Amino acid sequence: MINQLIQKIKDKEATVGVIGLGYVGLPLVLEFGKAGFPVVGFDVDQNKVDRLNQGESYIKHIPSKSIEELLARGKQEFTTDVTKVSKMDCILICVPTPLDKNRTPDMTYIVSTARQISPHMVKGQMVILESTTYPGTTWGILATELEANSSLKAGEDFYLAYSPEREDPNNPNFSTATIPKVIGADSEKELEAANELYKAIVSKTVPVSNTMTAEATKLMENIFRSVNIALVNEMKIILDKMGIDVWEVIEAASTKPFGYMPFYPGPGLGGHCIPIDPFYLTWKAREYEVPTRFIELAGEVNVSMPQYVVEKILTALNSSGKSAKGSKILVLGVAYKKDVDDDRESTSYKIMEMLVNLGAEVEFNDPYIPVVGPKRDYPNFVGKKEVSLDKIESFDMTVILTDHSKYDYGDIVNRSKIIVDTRNACAPIKSPKIIKA
Fold first, then answer.
1. Domain of 82: which CATH number?
2. Which residues pair with 435 in a beta bridge?
3. pLDDT higher than 90, residue 244
4. Which of 139, 253, 257, 307 has its CA 20 to 30 A from that of 369?
5. Among residues 90, 94, 273, 426, which one is catalytic?
């Protein structure tokens, strides 16, 4: 059966189903459609599906024109109807993998997806997990759930692979098609099938020996970033005490053409991957009684950064004769990084919450997020609307937490009473109002 599947993939006759139409799943639908495959996008959110079927994108860096062109090809659709899984040849799962309140991996979305699709699966299909997770998930959880809710056996009746997502929203230098794709499977034929599938849409594939290796690869990438960001965050605190500008130090160190790679400090870690992924490995490592001191220390440093920022804000307010209680503070940026409309795990909300708890009146402005959407950890901010920058003079302080390119920082500095800049966004401007944090 798998040889037939491989041939269908080569002929671009294999129907591809993508489950989860967020920042990972939707770009995959577009790329498979562009490559000529019949493709179906699945999501539990009827509103998302309706908008996509009308040719409308809900992700800033994906233009609606791309959706319209996809639908015009006539071999693509978006649906909430999970029974259509039975018509798929390849099923890609791109659902969230968050942490619970105890920083334990939350496999709810993977488990529920497996339970929903398994009754509708048929022999000869390939299932590929893209969600970031700890080594052993593909076979230990996904395969187990798929087998438990169907009469099919993994590796015989249906095939499994793991290929970690590597999306970097709004990165002008890399897209889904140009980022090399790591692929792991536990048999040569399964790996061949998955490799043929991704070869059709990406410039380079990177096959590895098994699913656990592929799962570990994704964690390695993001732990590397987490540790190095923690390092520069700690350096920022140390150098600030010494009266040294960490941004100038990084710029100077970056001139070294070997043995150095620049990382940049900030108010904490945001996005779905870097604040979460390291804890997946630390959790799994406990099963093997292996300590993960380095990874956990990096996590502690990064998690502590919002407190550092708030302390800088309090010091700045105190220098102008004010306390947090009753002060009006305007936060610029709730997206987790510049020029995106993605606020998952954004530390802006943590900092806002801390300031509110201290009695401050906190508002925000973000050109990409005019209204705060559903938030599991910060329900008190849900539905909160941004304020116009026209009101900036009425605030006691402006805090830059996301350095969006759309902001006119010269104008912001001129009109603000005090600026706390956590992103070095005001670097070219010399003003006693600016306090780096």
1. 3.40.50.720
2. 420
3. yes
4. 307
5. 273
